[in-house]
Amino acid sequence: MESLREQLAGIGFLDENLREKVNAFFAEGNPLVLERLVGAVKVRFDLDIRLTESGEIQLLGYELWKPRVVEIPEHFNNGTPTQLIEEQLKAIDFPAVLPQDFMSRREENEAFDQIGDVFQEFNHLEFFLLGQDDDLEFNKVNKMQNMLLVKYGAGNGMEDYLLKIDKGYWKEKFYQTFPFPPSLHVGAVINRINDTGRLQHLSELTKVYPENKLIMNLNNLENLREEMANLGFKKELIEQMEEKMKANVADFKLYDSVEATRGRVDMTLFFKQSGQSDYYYLNKFEVCHEKGQKIPEGQKIMVLTHTEGTDKKMTKVFVHVSEAIAFFNGQKEQLKEQKGISHLVVGKDANSAVKLATMEDGKVNYVQKEFGQTYRTSPINQTIYVEKGKGFSAEQAVNLIQGRAVYRDDMVSQAGQQYKAWIKLDFDVPKDRFGNFLINQYTDPAYGFDLSKVLDKFEIKELSDPAKRELLEGSIRNGNRAVVILEKNGAPVKLELEAVPRYSQINLYTKEGRPEKREQFLKQPDMKQEYAQSREKSQAKNKKQGQGQGIGI
Q1: Each residue of 358-384: pLDDT tens digit?
Q2: Other CB atoms within 10 Å distance of the CB of residue 404
Q3: Secondary structure of 301-313 in the HEC alphabet?
């Protein structure tokens, strides 16, 4: 069973009831079916398994069953109205299970009796047409009956009843089916679910080449899609990743930027292709907090370089300002030796670009006044390492680099023990030898910061609604400054709230970023004394625990 579970997990199939379904497959002959909800459509996958001589359960392949969409004509071609029978079907509350002998038990159940009436109507129509010896009209009515049964029987006991009578016949009526080999990741199928042509093409390809490079690449793509989605990267980035993989670019970067409380956070994702295969890996991404000048919409930042004695002019385009500045400054020694000039510019193209800085023979002799602070301020950046889609999410990383704390319940110690902790970057000590900030950890529950209990001390409107409270706490644990409504002197006040685990407290800010005193929003006046004592304790405890522990991320 474990080998089957691992095989299914490897291609994207997970099911809590797998053991029970496998037992029913071997004991009762029930089909082994896994269902997935894709958008508003529920699709099913029929798994073909067998028991090997060694006693292992092996997956031989699987088949996608995609429900057919049935539209019933108001009147049938020969003038026979379908409306009456359809009205009967609409009135039936179909049971989840329809016994094979339901016709002989019609008096037991109203639905059984109603379904029996419909079947009798079908028989009357067939008998009438058989008497006329008209095969064409008979086939038309038979088609009408099938369409009605599929439309109203799909997803309930009627469907299972008909499939048990004749699986091959009724499967084709209820579903479009596409077989796939056991090695193909289910994500490759699901991503084509709304395009029957692409599904058919994929199915045909995998029949001809069941174990080829195509399947390996499709599986790699689906794994990376899943990893990026789990880490919270945007759909547009996932699509860009797919295009780079299709173009077989060996190593590539993807870029994104998000608004920060002040400035923005630029993200760079690093993809690397294995030296031993065509597989790609996402093992790290970088976040950089930029507080300076932003590239105007529709423009790009470039470095234009020309060395003496050559006609060659190099133009290099960058997405992020910090990356362009680093490259520009990195040319100092080269231009000093070779004698040349380099311009850092911004614009739609090189010809219409505006100069931001100039370097001649290795010396910077011009920096645009408005660009000066951006150029001279070192960016605050951190490399975030991930493994198979696990680690700090994009949202958490964006908040970490802005100096806020995030909560992780899946941290692992060097001894392999899993634990929970609030994590915050330590900007007060030098970076490690890899250029990363060290982190402070405030373990849970040992450190003693209980977010829920701290929030309960304040008049926060969202806490009265369990659903809103869950969303609020989740947002704060991801490091966000969450917008809340508090009560002050009987009037509502909208503020931003963030966690401060170091002091077992929260901070409050106006939307402009101005700090607000917490004490004025406590539920009861006598809590102020308790709050002061709690703060003194946490400050004393902070001296002993949670200081830069030398752990990189």
Answers
A1: 999 989 999 999 999 899 988 899 999
A2: 21
A3: EEEEEEECCCCCE
